[in-house]
Amino acid sequence: MSIVSLLVESGVDINLRNYRGHTALMQACRHGHWEVVLFLILFGANIHRSDYLNGSTALHLAALNGHPRCIRILLSEYIPSVPNCWSLLKNKKYSVAGFEPSVLHDVINRAADGGITPLHVAALNGHIETVQLLLDLGASVTQGNGDTDTDTLDAETRRMGGAIC
Question: Using CA atoms, how far apart are residues 108 and 59, in angstroms rounded to an integer?
Fold first, then answer.
């Protein structure tokens, strides 16, 4: 962490990319370094950048390796800080000024190349806690990956014995 803060303090552009198109934020999410993820976001890291290889974002990389804490941090800007906010919002018992569920929906369901969403990636890699978190945050189970023969999420759910639903 001290290296990251030293680089930021020296003026390094935290949104620079490596040869794969990964930013420091993407690498931190990939490896589950949630403290670095939080630090980079506080200093303006762009969570919407996608890599050069397959269009994956930091959210895809956190889901790929099963890092729910990184996912929570990445999406914290889009989630109201209200206890039980989802049940309140779903039951229309509460409204939050400036909160747009459609924006969260777009971010959480953004597909990489081939239509693969963070939910698909987490399910395909058996990260049950991550799948549950994404579902709780409103990830779409119906957003397809373009594969007309199989529904990837449904197939993975059956393989895991229905454990994620």
Answer: 8
Sign of the alpha-carbon torsion through 21, 25, 28, 32: negative
Cα–Cα distance, 25 to 18 (Å, whole number): 11
| Assigned superfamily of 2-159 | Ankyrin repeat-containing domain (1.25.40.20)
What residue has token string 């969260």? 104
DSSP letters of 109-163? T---GGG--HHHHHHHTT-HHHHHHHHHTT--SS---S-SS--HHHHHHHHTTTT
pLDDT on residue 86: 52
Q: Using CB atoms within 10 A of its CB, is residue 162 exposed (0-12), middle (13-18) or buried (19+)?
A: exposed
Rounded to whole angstroms, the Cα distance separating 139 from 141 reads 6
The pLDDT score that the predictor gives to residue 148 is: 37
- Chunked in runs of 10, what are the mean pLDDT values of the chain (165 residues)? 82 91 96 96 93 94 97 84 55 55 83 94 97 92 58 52 42
Query: CA 43 to CA 72: how far, in whole Å?
Result: 17
> Residue ranges of the domains in the chain?
2-159
